[in-house]
Design goal:
The chain has 166 residues and is mainly alpha-helical. Helix content is 75%, strand content 0%. The chain is built from six helices and no strands. Bound molecules: fe (iii) ion (2 copies) and magnesium ion (MG).
């Protein structure tokens, strides 16, 4: 931990660490939801869905890395036990027990919309108080916005195919 780097944070560092760990929990659950979704998914446009879900899983894991590094910089400890992911999460976890592609993609869209809301709040909170965290969160938020758009475009394609194509 860098002492001066922590001193310039203009908000309660423990509160910030708690918010970052909550987001960290979200990222691991999102990672796994995408990863297992890509393995079990069935139905029209399956290959495109697998490619998108697999890429998003990698992105969510990178977000977890970015947040963990910031938590450590701030003198905190990233969650060490998976059981705490469930205790700390903002956005929860939707198991793809129904592997139909439309259902899986819809569940992931819901997850992205929650992530966008969560990161937008964190962005407002750090805007005036912590430019370093702000910058990290902004990069993540930009990717979550892309994720939502990718999935909604994919869902449109799936719906066209389900109607018998055009
Ligand atoms: Fe993410
Ligand atoms: Fe995402
Ligand atoms: Mg994508």
């Amino acid at each position: 931990m860098g002492t001066k780097g922590i001193k310039i944070v203009g908000m309660d560092v423990n509160e910030l660490l708690n918010l970052l760990n909550r987001a960290f929990a979200d990222e691991w659950l999102a990672y796994y939801q995408y990863w297992i979704g890509a393995k079990v998914v069935r139905g029209p446009n399956k290959e495109a869905a697998i490619a998108e879900l697999t890429q998003h899983a990698t992105d969510e894991q990178n977000h977890a890395t970015m947040i963990a590094l910031r938590i450590i910089q701030l003198g905190g400890m990233p969650i060490t036990k998976p059981e705490d992911w469930y205790r700390m999460t903002n956005c929860g976890y939707d198991a793809p027990d129904d592997p139909f592609v439309k259902k899986v993609v819809e569940q992931n869209i819901k997850g992205e919309q929650c992530a966008i809301e969560t990161y937008n709040k964190l962005l407002q909170k750090t805007k005036e108080t912590d430019p370093v965290t702000y910058n990290i969160i902004l990069q993540i938020l930009q990717q979550e916005v892309e994720h939502e758009e990718d999935l909604q475009a994919l869902l449109e394609d799936i719906e066209v195919m389900l109607k018998g194509g055009r």
